[in-house]
């Protein structure tokens, strides 16, 4: 793992498409259909999502999330908005680290249902507001939260630039945005192994465990279509976030980006 704000990575074209189409994995689809298609993917996998995350990352996603939560600087007087929060891992980590009230949000009600059930079992539901939220149009006032997080969700959004602008808008001055996402592998020896795992093994595991190979094929493709580390950092700057930096995890398989509203 490395930390850097100045990786010299060649720019990677944004996965956002111009005109009336955008990417859905390796396919171009009408922009107005992507949200529905992504929602269907996550409705399909919601019940097995946590198990499949362990399978997809060989359990390493838990380590990445612990690092991510540790970087948030949780305090009791701080409020968190967790975008694409799904089954609640980041929200729960925030509260257990001593953070203040949290909004667990996702565009997918099936994922949130799993998250709500987990929160009840963990005795955390009283500190959490659970909301269906489109991250491209957040229904919160300007300057209303201290931290905005999105973990493994930004790549599924149709208009990533809008998500970044909205995240900055709802942050208080001095607030900080954090994104944990699969990124661009920077260790050459890892690439062929990672590709084999993603496109040969993962869909078969999806079929075996979740009875859904197609959704996991999409998830693998969506990772490859996501902007690389430096491109995402520039997108964050363009959205008005400042002091943007990123930290690679596991050789760039994943990365944590952060930026401030100053």
TrEMBL record:
The protein's enzyme class: transferase
Gene3D superfamilies per record: Vaccinia Virus protein VP39
Pathway: Quinol/quinone metabolism; menaquinone biosynthesis; menaquinol from 1,4-dihydroxy-2-naphthoate: step 2/2; Cofactor biosynthesis; ubiquinone biosynthesis
Reactions listed under catalytic activity: a 2-methoxy-6-(all-trans-polyprenyl)benzene-1,4-diol + S-adenosyl-L-methionine = a 5-methoxy-2-methyl-3-(all-trans-polyprenyl)benzene-1,4-diol + S-adenosyl-L-homocysteine + H(+); a 2-demethylmenaquinol + S-adenosyl-L-methionine = a menaquinol + S-adenosyl-L-homocysteine + H(+)
Region (Disordered): 1-28
UniProt: S-adenosyl-L-methionine binding residues: 87, 106, 134-135
Keywords, sorted A to Z: Menaquinone biosynthesis, Methyltransferase, S-adenosyl-L-methionine, Transferase, Ubiquinone biosynthesis
EC annotation from Swiss-Prot or TrEMBL: 2.1.1.163, 2.1.1.201
Single annotated GO MF: 2-methoxy-6-polyprenyl-1,4-benzoquinol methyltransferase activity
Swiss-Prot/TrEMBL GO biological process terms: aerobic respiration; menaquinone biosynthetic process; methylation
Keyword Zinc: no
Pfam families, sorted: Ubie_methyltran (PF01209)
Function: Methyltransferase required for the conversion of demethylmenaquinol (DMKH2) to menaquinol (MKH2) and the conversion of 2-polyprenyl-6-methoxy-1,4-benzoquinol (DDMQH2) to 2-polyprenyl-3-methyl-6-methoxy-1,4-benzoquinol (DMQH2).
Family from the record: Belongs to the class I-like SAM-binding methyltransferase superfamily. MenG/UbiE family.
Protein name per the record: Ubiquinone/menaquinone biosynthesis C-methyltransferase UbiE
Organism field: Gluconobacter thailandicus
Encoding gene, per UniProt annotation: ubiE
């Amino acid at each position: 793992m490395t930390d850097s704000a100045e990786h010299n990575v060649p720019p990677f074209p944004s996965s956002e498409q111009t005109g009336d189409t955008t990417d859905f994995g390796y396919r171009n689809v009408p922009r107005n259909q992507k949200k529905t298609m992504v929602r269907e993917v996550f409705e399909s996998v919601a019940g097995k999502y946590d198990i499949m995350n362990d399978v997809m990352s060989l359990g390493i996603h838990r380590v990445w999330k612990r690092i991510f939560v540790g970087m948030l600087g949780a305090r009791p007087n701080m409020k968190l908005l967790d975008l694409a929060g799904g089954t609640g891992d980041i929200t729960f980590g925030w509260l257990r680290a001593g953070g203040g009230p949290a909004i667990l949000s996702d565009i997918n009600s099936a994922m949130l249902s799993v998250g709500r059930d987990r929160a009840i079992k963990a005795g955390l539901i009283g500190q959490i507001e659970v909301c269906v939220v489109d991250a491209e149009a957040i229904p919160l006032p300007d300057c209303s939260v201290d931290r905005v997080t999105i973990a493994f969700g930004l790549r599924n959004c149709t208009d990533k630039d809008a998500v970044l602008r909205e995240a900055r808008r709802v942050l208080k001055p001095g607030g900080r945005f954090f994104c944990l996402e699969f990124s661009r592998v920077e260790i050459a020896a890892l690439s062929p192994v990672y590709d084999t795992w993603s496109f040969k093994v993962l869909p078969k595991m999806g079929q075996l465990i979740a009875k859904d190979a197609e959704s996991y094929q999409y998830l693998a493709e969506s990772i490859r279509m996501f902007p690389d580390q430096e491109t995402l950092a520039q997108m964050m700057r363009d959205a008005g976030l400042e002091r943007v930096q990123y930290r690679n995890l596991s050789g760039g398989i994943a990365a944590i980006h952060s930026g401030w509203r100053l």
